[in-house]
Specification:
The chain is mostly beta strands. The protein has one helix and five strands. The protein is 8% helix and 32% strand.
Length: 65
């Protein structure tokens, strides 16, 4: 029996969620590359509102409503 995880062709295999690191908080850590998937911006729906997460030329992130 093959226990290797299957991936879709062309899909990034980097994990979207990782265990929290050694910081004091217990929140999950997200990789921005997994969220953006090579795009400059993505739209996030949260509590009925739409937000835009985008990366700048300097590699920083901006979240706007």
């Amino acid at each position: 029996m093959n226990t290797e995880p299957r991936t879709e062709p062309g899909r990034d295999t980097a994990p979207l969620l990782r265990e929290a690191d050694t910081r004091d908080d217990s929140s999950a850590s997200l990789n921005s590359d997994a969220l953006l998937r090579g795009q400059k911006a993505v739209t996030i729906s949260h509590n009925g509102a739409l937000y835009r997460l985008q990366t700048t030329r300097q590699g920083k992130l901006i979240l706007t409503k």
